[in-house]
Amino acid sequence: MKELRFPVSEEDIKGLKVREQILISGRIFCGRDAVLPKIAGMINDGSIKESGIDLNGGLIFHTAVSPAGVGPTSSNKFEIESTMEILSHAGIRMHLGKGALKKETAEMLKREGAVYAVIPPVTALLTDRIKSRRVAAFGELGMEALYELEVYDYPAVIAIAGGESIYE
Question: For residues 28 and 119, is the Cβ–Cβ distance under 8 A?
């Protein structure tokens, strides 16, 4: 099992293969359909730099952060999948969630040097592996705000890398 510490380098991502099992540690972001379009808007208008949010080498986990814990949401929701290109272009190297993505998304991830991984929906396991959490942006969205977590040993499987997908 390969261990990845976030933020990562482009080289760390280039070596990943579809079906490879990984353990994720480090600083990651959490967001889903309510906040990811807002973050994409911040990237487009340049205000992301002023916010102090550094996406370079980062990971976006498609989840809300609630008192009950964290668990993946479907990554193929329009509001999530449609933001992956701009987020990848801005430095996100891994998108983490669940579910199949479009072939066009797999090709885009390859172009942008990013990958997609899936994570089991085991909230208790994931919650136990959070060292710290803070609201990074849009706190008014409550559990759907953009959160920054410090995690260790999140288990995942690479689902899309290098234009290949486990869903094809």
Answer: no
**H or E stretch at 48:** helix 47-51
95 DSSP β-pair partners? 60, 116
d(CA 49, CA 14) in angstroms, rounded, equals 26
- Written as six digits, the tokens of 27 are 């600083």
Q: Where are the domains of the chain?
A: 2-165
Of 100, 74, 72, 67, the closest CA to residue 156 belongs to 72
In the numeric block, the tokens 């172009």 are attached to 111
SS3 13: helix
CB proximity list for 15: less than 8 A, separation 6 or greater: none
C-alpha distance across the termini of the chain, in Å = 23
Compute the residue count for the chain: 168
CATH class of the 2-165 domain in this structure: alpha beta
Q: To the nearest whole number, what is the mean pLDDT of the chain?
A: 94
- Rounded to two decimals, the pTM is 0.92
